[in-house]
Amino acid sequence: MTASAIVTASSLCLITLLSTGLPIAFSILAICLGYMLITGMQPDIAGSTMFWFLNKSSLVAIPFFILSAEILSRSGATDALVKASNVLCGRLPNGLALVTVVAIMVFSAISGSSVATAVAIGRVMIPQLIQNGYKARFAVGLVAASGGLGILIPPSIPLIVYAAVVEISVGDLFISAMLPGLMLGSMLFAFVLLVGDWARTKKIATEEKLFDPGDRRKALLMGLPMFCFPLIILGGIYGGVFTPTEAAAMSVILATLLSFTIYRSGSLTEYSRILTQSGTMAATILIIMAATSVLSYILSYEQIPKAITTLITHSDISPIVFILGVNLLLLALGCFLEIISVILIVVPILLPTLNDLGIDPIYFGIILIVNMELAVITPPIGMNLFVVSAISRQSIGKVFQGALPFVGVITVGLIILILFPQISTIFVR
Question: How far are the Cα atoms of 351, 361, 383, 403 from residue 375, in angstroms, in the given order?
Fold first, then answer.
Protein backbone atom coordinates (compact mmCIF):
# COMPACT_ATOMS: atom_id res chain seq x y z
CA MET A 1 0.00 0.00 0.00
CA THR A 2 1.38 3.42 -0.97
CA ALA A 3 2.04 6.20 1.52
CA SER A 4 -0.73 8.38 0.13
CA ALA A 5 -3.21 5.49 0.30
CA ILE A 6 -2.34 4.77 3.94
CA VAL A 7 -2.66 8.42 4.96
CA THR A 8 -5.95 8.83 3.06
CA ALA A 9 -7.48 5.63 4.44
CA SER A 10 -6.39 6.44 8.02
CA SER A 11 -7.76 9.97 7.78
CA LEU A 12 -11.13 8.79 6.47
CA CYS A 13 -11.39 6.13 9.16
CA LEU A 14 -10.48 8.64 11.88
CA ILE A 15 -13.07 11.16 10.68
CA THR A 16 -15.72 8.42 10.53
CA LEU A 17 -14.99 7.17 14.05
CA LEU A 18 -14.90 10.68 15.52
CA SER A 19 -18.23 11.49 13.90
CA THR A 20 -19.78 8.62 15.88
CA GLY A 21 -18.74 10.28 19.14
CA LEU A 22 -15.99 7.79 19.96
CA PRO A 23 -13.24 9.50 22.00
CA ILE A 24 -10.13 10.49 20.07
CA ALA A 25 -7.85 8.05 21.91
CA PHE A 26 -10.07 5.04 21.23
CA SER A 27 -10.60 6.13 17.62
CA ILE A 28 -6.85 6.21 17.01
CA LEU A 29 -6.28 2.88 18.76
CA ALA A 30 -9.08 1.27 16.72
CA ILE A 31 -7.40 2.40 13.48
CA CYS A 32 -4.01 1.14 14.64
CA LEU A 33 -5.30 -2.25 15.78
CA GLY A 34 -7.27 -2.61 12.54
CA TYR A 35 -4.11 -1.95 10.54
CA MET A 36 -2.17 -4.49 12.62
CA LEU A 37 -4.78 -7.18 12.06
CA ILE A 38 -4.90 -6.54 8.31
CA THR A 39 -1.12 -6.48 7.83
CA GLY A 40 -0.30 -9.27 10.28
CA MET A 41 1.66 -7.02 12.63
CA GLN A 42 1.81 -8.29 16.21
CA PRO A 43 -0.78 -6.37 18.32
CA ASP A 44 1.45 -6.51 21.42
CA ILE A 45 3.63 -3.90 19.70
CA ALA A 46 0.91 -1.37 20.59
CA GLY A 47 1.33 -2.01 24.31
CA SER A 48 5.13 -1.81 24.27
CA THR A 49 5.04 1.36 22.15
CA MET A 50 2.65 3.11 24.52
CA PHE A 51 4.71 2.09 27.55
CA TRP A 52 7.95 3.26 25.92
CA PHE A 53 6.48 6.66 25.01
CA LEU A 54 4.98 7.33 28.44
CA ASN A 55 8.12 6.18 30.25
CA LYS A 56 9.60 9.69 30.19
CA SER A 57 10.23 11.68 33.34
CA SER A 58 9.34 14.97 31.61
CA LEU A 59 5.71 13.83 31.24
CA VAL A 60 5.34 13.71 35.03
CA ALA A 61 5.17 17.50 34.88
CA ILE A 62 1.77 17.37 33.16
CA PRO A 63 -0.36 16.08 36.07
CA PHE A 64 1.54 18.29 38.52
CA PHE A 65 0.91 21.52 36.58
CA ILE A 66 -2.75 20.56 36.10
CA LEU A 67 -3.12 19.92 39.83
CA SER A 68 -1.44 23.21 40.72
CA ALA A 69 -3.74 25.21 38.44
CA GLU A 70 -6.81 23.42 39.79
CA ILE A 71 -5.85 24.18 43.41
CA LEU A 72 -5.38 27.88 42.69
CA SER A 73 -8.50 28.24 40.55
CA ARG A 74 -10.65 26.81 43.36
CA SER A 75 -9.11 29.00 46.04
CA GLY A 76 -9.28 32.74 46.56
CA ALA A 77 -6.10 33.12 44.55
CA THR A 78 -7.89 34.07 41.35
CA ASP A 79 -9.89 36.82 43.06
CA ALA A 80 -6.72 38.17 44.68
CA LEU A 81 -4.96 38.22 41.31
CA VAL A 82 -7.82 40.10 39.68
CA LYS A 83 -8.02 42.70 42.48
CA ALA A 84 -4.27 43.33 42.36
CA SER A 85 -4.37 43.64 38.57
CA ASN A 86 -7.27 46.05 38.96
CA VAL A 87 -5.23 48.27 41.25
CA LEU A 88 -2.40 48.30 38.69
CA CYS A 89 -4.45 48.80 35.50
CA GLY A 90 -7.90 49.96 36.61
CA ARG A 91 -7.23 53.66 36.07
CA LEU A 92 -6.21 53.19 32.43
CA PRO A 93 -8.75 53.62 29.60
CA ASN A 94 -10.77 50.42 29.30
CA GLY A 95 -9.09 49.40 32.51
CA LEU A 96 -11.28 46.43 33.33
CA ALA A 97 -10.67 44.80 29.96
CA LEU A 98 -6.95 45.40 30.45
CA VAL A 99 -7.18 43.80 33.88
CA THR A 100 -8.58 40.71 32.17
CA VAL A 101 -5.59 40.46 29.83
CA VAL A 102 -3.05 40.99 32.64
CA ALA A 103 -4.75 38.46 34.93
CA ILE A 104 -4.85 35.90 32.12
CA MET A 105 -1.16 36.42 31.32
CA VAL A 106 -0.18 35.87 34.95
CA PHE A 107 -2.43 32.84 35.41
CA SER A 108 -1.12 31.41 32.12
CA ALA A 109 2.34 31.42 33.67
CA ILE A 110 0.94 29.20 36.42
CA SER A 111 -1.56 26.84 34.78
CA GLY A 112 0.01 25.72 31.48
CA SER A 113 -3.48 25.26 30.06
CA SER A 114 -5.70 27.54 27.96
CA VAL A 115 -8.88 25.89 29.25
CA ALA A 116 -7.89 26.24 32.92
CA THR A 117 -6.91 29.87 32.37
CA ALA A 118 -10.13 30.75 30.54
CA VAL A 119 -12.27 29.10 33.23
CA ALA A 120 -10.42 30.53 36.24
CA ILE A 121 -10.33 34.12 35.02
CA GLY A 122 -13.55 33.99 33.00
CA ARG A 123 -15.68 33.05 36.01
CA VAL A 124 -14.62 36.27 37.73
CA MET A 125 -14.20 38.69 34.85
CA ILE A 126 -17.01 37.99 32.36
CA PRO A 127 -19.87 38.98 34.70
CA GLN A 128 -17.94 42.07 35.82
CA LEU A 129 -17.15 43.13 32.26
CA ILE A 130 -20.81 42.88 31.27
CA GLN A 131 -21.89 44.69 34.44
CA ASN A 132 -19.45 47.46 33.61
CA GLY A 133 -21.00 48.13 30.22
CA TYR A 134 -18.99 45.92 27.90
CA LYS A 135 -20.92 43.99 25.28
CA ALA A 136 -21.37 40.34 26.23
CA ARG A 137 -19.93 39.30 22.89
CA PHE A 138 -16.74 41.29 23.54
CA ALA A 139 -16.40 39.99 27.12
CA VAL A 140 -16.62 36.30 26.21
CA GLY A 141 -14.48 36.75 23.09
CA LEU A 142 -11.76 38.52 25.08
CA VAL A 143 -11.54 35.72 27.66
CA ALA A 144 -11.68 32.93 25.06
CA ALA A 145 -8.95 34.46 22.87
CA SER A 146 -6.65 35.70 25.65
CA GLY A 147 -7.00 32.34 27.40
CA GLY A 148 -5.08 30.85 24.49
CA LEU A 149 -1.94 32.38 26.02
CA GLY A 150 -2.16 29.54 28.54
CA ILE A 151 -0.61 27.13 26.03
CA LEU A 152 2.20 29.50 24.99
CA ILE A 153 3.41 31.28 28.13
CA PRO A 154 5.42 28.74 30.17
CA PRO A 155 4.81 26.39 31.84
CA SER A 156 2.84 25.10 28.86
CA ILE A 157 1.52 21.54 28.83
CA PRO A 158 1.49 21.35 24.98
CA LEU A 159 5.13 22.49 24.96
CA ILE A 160 5.98 19.64 27.36
CA VAL A 161 4.25 17.21 24.99
CA TYR A 162 6.07 18.67 21.98
CA ALA A 163 9.43 18.39 23.75
CA ALA A 164 8.71 14.74 24.53
CA VAL A 165 7.92 13.98 20.87
CA VAL A 166 10.87 15.88 19.40
CA GLU A 167 13.20 14.88 22.26
CA ILE A 168 14.51 18.36 23.00
CA SER A 169 14.90 20.24 26.25
CA VAL A 170 11.68 21.39 27.90
CA GLY A 171 13.64 24.17 29.59
CA ASP A 172 14.88 25.49 26.23
CA LEU A 173 11.33 25.48 24.90
CA PHE A 174 10.08 27.36 27.95
CA ILE A 175 12.80 29.99 27.56
CA SER A 176 12.01 30.33 23.85
CA ALA A 177 8.29 30.77 24.48
CA MET A 178 8.66 33.64 26.95
CA LEU A 179 9.28 36.43 24.44
CA PRO A 180 6.59 35.30 21.92
CA GLY A 181 4.14 34.93 24.82
CA LEU A 182 4.88 38.43 26.11
CA MET A 183 4.69 39.80 22.57
CA LEU A 184 1.25 38.33 21.91
CA GLY A 185 0.03 39.36 25.35
CA SER A 186 1.23 42.92 24.72
CA MET A 187 -0.50 42.96 21.32
CA LEU A 188 -3.79 41.89 22.91
CA PHE A 189 -3.28 44.52 25.64
CA ALA A 190 -2.71 47.26 23.03
CA PHE A 191 -5.69 46.13 20.95
CA VAL A 192 -8.02 46.26 23.95
CA LEU A 193 -6.65 49.67 24.91
CA LEU A 194 -7.47 50.99 21.43
CA VAL A 195 -10.86 49.39 20.71
CA GLY A 196 -12.32 48.88 24.17
CA ASP A 197 -14.59 51.94 23.95
CA TRP A 198 -16.14 50.56 20.76
CA ALA A 199 -17.12 47.40 22.63
CA ARG A 200 -19.14 49.17 25.31
CA THR A 201 -22.80 50.01 25.51
CA LYS A 202 -22.24 52.32 28.47
CA LYS A 203 -19.30 53.75 30.33
CA ILE A 204 -18.80 53.75 34.06
CA ALA A 205 -16.48 56.49 35.22
CA THR A 206 -14.30 54.62 37.69
CA GLU A 207 -13.69 51.03 36.77
CA GLU A 208 -11.08 50.72 39.51
CA LYS A 209 -13.83 50.83 42.14
CA LEU A 210 -15.66 47.91 40.57
CA PHE A 211 -14.07 45.30 42.81
CA ASP A 212 -13.88 47.72 45.72
CA PRO A 213 -10.32 46.68 46.68
CA GLY A 214 -10.47 49.01 49.68
CA ASP A 215 -6.95 49.46 50.84
CA ARG A 216 -4.79 49.46 47.70
CA ARG A 217 -1.82 48.21 49.66
CA LYS A 218 -3.81 45.26 51.03
CA ALA A 219 -5.06 44.32 47.54
CA LEU A 220 -1.54 44.41 46.16
CA LEU A 221 -0.14 42.41 49.08
CA MET A 222 -2.81 39.71 48.66
CA GLY A 223 -2.12 39.52 44.93
CA LEU A 224 1.67 39.63 45.26
CA PRO A 225 2.06 35.84 45.80
CA MET A 226 0.27 35.20 42.49
CA PHE A 227 2.64 37.54 40.65
CA CYS A 228 5.64 35.97 42.38
CA PHE A 229 4.45 32.39 41.76
CA PRO A 230 5.52 32.18 38.09
CA LEU A 231 8.75 34.06 38.85
CA ILE A 232 9.72 31.40 41.41
CA ILE A 233 8.80 28.46 39.17
CA LEU A 234 10.22 29.80 35.89
CA GLY A 235 13.17 31.48 37.59
CA GLY A 236 14.05 28.17 39.21
CA ILE A 237 13.97 26.43 35.83
CA TYR A 238 16.00 29.07 34.01
CA GLY A 239 18.43 29.42 36.89
CA GLY A 240 19.10 25.71 36.98
CA VAL A 241 17.73 25.30 40.52
CA PHE A 242 15.37 22.54 39.43
CA THR A 243 14.23 20.75 36.28
CA PRO A 244 10.83 21.42 34.67
CA THR A 245 9.51 18.22 36.26
CA GLU A 246 10.77 19.26 39.70
CA ALA A 247 9.33 22.73 39.07
CA ALA A 248 5.93 21.17 38.43
CA ALA A 249 6.07 19.36 41.77
CA MET A 250 7.19 22.59 43.45
CA SER A 251 4.21 24.42 41.91
CA VAL A 252 1.83 21.99 43.65
CA ILE A 253 3.56 22.58 46.99
CA LEU A 254 3.42 26.36 46.58
CA ALA A 255 -0.21 26.30 45.43
CA THR A 256 -1.20 24.20 48.45
CA LEU A 257 0.66 26.45 50.87
CA LEU A 258 -0.93 29.57 49.37
CA SER A 259 -4.37 28.02 49.49
CA PHE A 260 -4.16 27.04 53.17
CA THR A 261 -2.10 29.90 54.60
CA ILE A 262 -2.83 33.10 52.66
CA TYR A 263 -6.14 32.51 50.92
CA ARG A 264 -7.45 30.07 53.57
CA SER A 265 -9.93 28.38 51.29
CA GLY A 266 -8.91 24.76 51.30
CA SER A 267 -10.54 21.73 52.92
CA LEU A 268 -9.93 18.00 52.76
CA THR A 269 -13.27 17.43 51.02
CA GLU A 270 -12.50 20.07 48.43
CA TYR A 271 -9.04 18.62 47.88
CA SER A 272 -10.56 15.23 47.19
CA ARG A 273 -12.61 16.79 44.38
CA ILE A 274 -9.56 18.66 43.08
CA LEU A 275 -7.47 15.47 42.98
CA THR A 276 -10.24 13.58 41.18
CA GLN A 277 -10.75 16.26 38.53
CA SER A 278 -7.03 16.84 38.00
CA GLY A 279 -6.35 13.13 37.77
CA THR A 280 -9.12 12.68 35.20
CA MET A 281 -7.81 15.54 33.07
CA ALA A 282 -4.20 14.34 33.22
CA ALA A 283 -5.20 10.74 32.47
CA THR A 284 -7.16 11.89 29.43
CA ILE A 285 -4.14 13.72 28.03
CA LEU A 286 -1.74 10.84 28.70
CA ILE A 287 -4.10 8.25 27.17
CA ILE A 288 -4.36 10.34 24.00
CA MET A 289 -0.57 10.61 23.92
CA ALA A 290 -0.16 6.85 24.36
CA ALA A 291 -2.67 6.05 21.60
CA THR A 292 -1.11 8.51 19.19
CA SER A 293 2.36 7.06 19.81
CA VAL A 294 1.12 3.79 18.26
CA LEU A 295 -0.10 5.67 15.19
CA SER A 296 3.28 7.40 14.93
CA TYR A 297 5.00 4.01 15.09
CA ILE A 298 2.89 2.66 12.23
CA LEU A 299 3.49 5.75 10.11
CA SER A 300 7.23 5.43 10.70
CA TYR A 301 7.09 1.69 9.96
CA GLU A 302 5.46 2.45 6.61
CA GLN A 303 8.09 5.18 6.04
CA ILE A 304 5.44 7.86 5.60
CA PRO A 305 7.68 10.65 7.03
CA LYS A 306 10.50 9.61 4.70
CA ALA A 307 8.16 9.65 1.70
CA ILE A 308 6.94 13.15 2.58
CA THR A 309 10.49 14.39 3.07
CA THR A 310 11.57 12.95 -0.28
CA LEU A 311 8.60 14.54 -2.04
CA ILE A 312 9.29 17.97 -0.55
CA THR A 313 13.03 17.93 -1.12
CA HIS A 314 12.62 16.78 -4.74
CA SER A 315 10.11 19.57 -5.27
CA ASP A 316 12.78 22.10 -4.22
CA ILE A 317 10.46 23.81 -1.74
CA SER A 318 12.07 26.58 0.32
CA PRO A 319 11.82 26.49 4.13
CA ILE A 320 9.53 29.55 4.24
CA VAL A 321 7.12 28.05 1.68
CA PHE A 322 7.11 24.82 3.67
CA ILE A 323 6.36 26.71 6.91
CA LEU A 324 3.50 28.59 5.26
CA GLY A 325 2.04 25.33 3.93
CA VAL A 326 2.34 23.67 7.34
CA ASN A 327 0.59 26.64 8.95
CA LEU A 328 -2.40 26.14 6.66
CA LEU A 329 -2.39 22.43 7.52
CA LEU A 330 -2.25 23.15 11.26
CA LEU A 331 -5.07 25.67 11.05
CA ALA A 332 -7.21 23.12 9.21
CA LEU A 333 -6.43 20.28 11.64
CA GLY A 334 -6.97 22.57 14.61
CA CYS A 335 -10.59 23.00 13.53
CA PHE A 336 -11.28 19.30 14.10
CA LEU A 337 -8.72 17.96 16.58
CA GLU A 338 -7.67 19.12 20.02
CA ILE A 339 -4.15 20.44 20.61
CA ILE A 340 -2.40 17.37 21.99
CA SER A 341 -3.69 15.18 19.15
CA VAL A 342 -2.47 17.63 16.50
CA ILE A 343 1.00 17.70 18.03
CA LEU A 344 1.24 13.94 18.35
CA ILE A 345 -0.05 13.20 14.85
CA VAL A 346 1.66 15.92 12.82
CA VAL A 347 5.07 16.39 14.44
CA PRO A 348 6.43 12.82 14.00
CA ILE A 349 5.47 12.99 10.31
CA LEU A 350 7.07 16.37 9.69
CA LEU A 351 10.15 16.05 11.92
CA PRO A 352 12.43 14.42 9.27
CA THR A 353 11.49 17.17 6.81
CA LEU A 354 12.22 19.86 9.39
CA ASN A 355 15.67 18.39 9.94
CA ASP A 356 16.32 18.08 6.22
CA LEU A 357 15.34 21.70 5.54
CA GLY A 358 17.36 22.95 8.49
CA ILE A 359 14.34 24.34 10.35
CA ASP A 360 14.99 24.79 14.06
CA PRO A 361 12.61 22.49 16.00
CA ILE A 362 12.32 25.09 18.77
CA TYR A 363 11.22 27.77 16.28
CA PHE A 364 8.77 25.33 14.70
CA GLY A 365 7.39 24.39 18.12
CA ILE A 366 6.55 28.01 18.90
CA ILE A 367 4.89 28.46 15.49
CA LEU A 368 2.86 25.29 16.05
CA ILE A 369 1.64 26.41 19.49
CA VAL A 370 0.58 29.85 18.21
CA ASN A 371 -1.40 28.06 15.50
CA MET A 372 -3.05 26.08 18.26
CA GLU A 373 -3.94 29.36 19.99
CA LEU A 374 -6.08 30.02 16.94
CA ALA A 375 -7.40 26.46 17.06
CA VAL A 376 -8.80 26.81 20.61
CA ILE A 377 -11.09 29.61 19.41
CA THR A 378 -12.03 28.05 16.08
CA PRO A 379 -15.14 25.89 15.60
CA PRO A 380 -16.12 23.11 15.66
CA ILE A 381 -13.60 21.76 18.24
CA GLY A 382 -12.26 25.00 19.74
CA MET A 383 -12.19 24.08 23.44
CA ASN A 384 -12.10 27.66 24.72
CA LEU A 385 -15.33 28.36 22.85
CA PHE A 386 -17.06 25.54 24.70
CA VAL A 387 -15.75 26.31 28.19
CA VAL A 388 -16.38 30.05 27.92
CA SER A 389 -19.85 29.35 26.55
CA ALA A 390 -20.53 27.08 29.53
CA ILE A 391 -19.36 29.49 32.24
CA SER A 392 -20.97 32.57 30.65
CA ARG A 393 -24.18 30.91 29.42
CA GLN A 394 -23.67 32.58 26.06
CA SER A 395 -24.02 30.66 22.79
CA ILE A 396 -20.91 29.23 21.15
CA GLY A 397 -21.74 31.36 18.10
CA LYS A 398 -21.66 34.54 20.17
CA VAL A 399 -18.35 33.54 21.79
CA PHE A 400 -16.83 32.91 18.35
CA GLN A 401 -18.13 36.22 17.01
CA GLY A 402 -16.58 37.99 19.98
CA ALA A 403 -13.28 36.19 19.46
CA LEU A 404 -13.00 37.00 15.74
CA PRO A 405 -11.30 40.42 16.15
CA PHE A 406 -8.72 38.80 18.40
CA VAL A 407 -8.11 36.10 15.78
CA GLY A 408 -6.80 38.90 13.59
CA VAL A 409 -4.44 40.09 16.33
CA ILE A 410 -3.06 36.59 16.95
CA THR A 411 -2.68 36.03 13.18
CA VAL A 412 -0.58 39.20 12.87
CA GLY A 413 1.55 37.92 15.77
CA LEU A 414 1.94 34.56 14.02
CA ILE A 415 3.12 36.25 10.81
CA ILE A 416 5.70 38.26 12.78
CA LEU A 417 7.01 35.09 14.43
CA ILE A 418 7.23 33.32 11.05
CA LEU A 419 9.16 36.18 9.45
CA PHE A 420 11.48 36.75 12.40
CA PRO A 421 12.55 33.34 13.80
CA GLN A 422 15.07 35.00 16.13
CA ILE A 423 12.19 36.12 18.38
CA SER A 424 11.74 32.46 19.32
CA THR A 425 15.38 31.44 19.52
CA ILE A 426 17.26 34.52 20.73
CA PHE A 427 17.65 33.23 24.30
CA VAL A 428 18.70 29.66 23.43
CA ARG A 429 21.12 30.23 20.57
Answer: 21, 20, 8, 12
